[in-house]
Amino acid sequence: MEDLIKKIKTRLHLRPEAEEFLYSISKEIKHSKGEVLIREGQMVKKTFFVTSGCLRSFCIDNNGKEHTLLFAINDWWISDYIAIHNNELATLTVECLTDSTVIEFNAKELDGIHTRFPEFESYQRLNLERHVVSLHKRILNQLQLSATERYDLFLKQYPDIERHTRNYHIASFLGITQESLSRIRVEKAKK
Amino acid sequence: MEDLIKKIKTRLHLRPEAEEFLYSISKEIKHSKGEVLIREGQMVKKTFFVTSGCLRSFCIDNNGKEHTLLFAINDWWISDYIAIHNNELATLTVECLTDSTVIEFNAKELDGIHTRFPEFESYQRLNLERHVVSLHKRILNQLQLSATERYDLFLKQYPDIERHTRNYHIASFLGITQESLSRIRVEKAKK
DNA sequence: TAGCTTTCTTACCATAGGTCAATTTTAGGC
DNA sequence: GCCTAAAATTGACCTATGGTAAGAAAGCTA
User: Fold this and answer.
1) Alpha carbon of B34 to those of B60, B96, B125, B159, B169: distances in Å?
2) CA-closest candidate to residue B112, choices B1, B22, B3, B50
3) A45-69: per-residue pLDDT in tens?
4) CATH numeric code, B2-109
5) Contacts of B114 in chain A (CB under 8 A)
6) Less Cβ crowding at N or C end of chain A, within 10 Å?
7) CATH topology of domain A2-123
8) Beta carbons of A67 and B144 less than 8 Å apart
9) Could you report the per-residue pLDDT of B147-181, keeping only the tens digit for each?
10) Is strand D less than 7 A from the beta carbon of A176?
11) Shortest distance, CA B34 to any CA of chain A (angstroms)
């Protein structure tokens, strides 16, 4: 929990009452590798702040193939925001790729922080802007880069994640098969 | 301008002073087809609310190919938010696909609305959340759907846009070539 | 450390979509 | 309405990536 507090404090003066509020609505929970925190088709009420370990969110298509939307490590949030925002059942699954510690919030309760402590509004607005920008970039990359280029970029952007992830997790994030990724790795090794 | 005011009012009580502020920092401008409102490599200061016509934002890759990030018609905002948020030069180009009317804002001035009229904070937060969700969906679609499926979905989501756009605009949005799109259209017509 | 189980690699073939170069169609400008 | 330029289509061929299946390697667990 200190991690989250610290992170917020880098960009916002956090009143003691707000800090207390955060504590009051959160729970720190340890999960082991493979545990599923959100399952496709179920109600989504929670959102998670990762303090250690590595998680991912992914969907499963009609052919049973998985497609990774997000990897989350230290200091990232993860949930199924599509479901939360639209008040629908989960289309995503969120699972632990390693033993992980997360701080769990009820998403609606957490949202209440904006009315209780309005200074969070602009903090959150900035977070969302940042997120929008990174998604814009990801879409443009997907449109213009080859699989190899996308993999190179991935390694730059997530230098640590490879330690935690299986090859097919990365492949499903890049939009290719694990076999293709394997071939790309071989080519890269040759150089 | 009334369009924007009306749009805001559907989700926010708009104080007269706020409405006045919006008027004071905006300019309604007509542009003709082909005009470029933001050009790659230049400073980005403006953001645009579209009241009529159709615009798009796109980037150009190393091979000179265009990749469309967004089409904007009635009641949409368009700009290069990557550049604005990071305070960088534009990587995107924004052009009019038809004669268009936009309301032009200085992005920083418009941002000031949040400090002057704090009720805009949560309004904008919701807008951004909605935007994030739609980008999540677009990424998942790009990962799991074939070109034909993506085109079908595009036609559903933007039923009117085809009247304004060239085939290669749509192709560059879907991440395929115009020739491929042409073949997909032929196949669809057969059925 | 032996024995599973999971993951990764490899080889071969298949295919969606890309490239290039005509050719046809469409749409503005005069 | 005619003429030209832009856009769309088409065909022949090519390439990146996918599919399948088998074997190799790595990781657990007892």
Assistant:
1) 16, 5, 33, 22, 13
2) B22
3) 999 999 999 999 999 998 899 999 9
4) 2.60.120.10
5) 121-122, 125
6) C
7) Jelly Rolls (2.60.120)
8) yes
9) 999 999 999 999 888 888 999 999 999 999 999 99
10) yes
11) 22
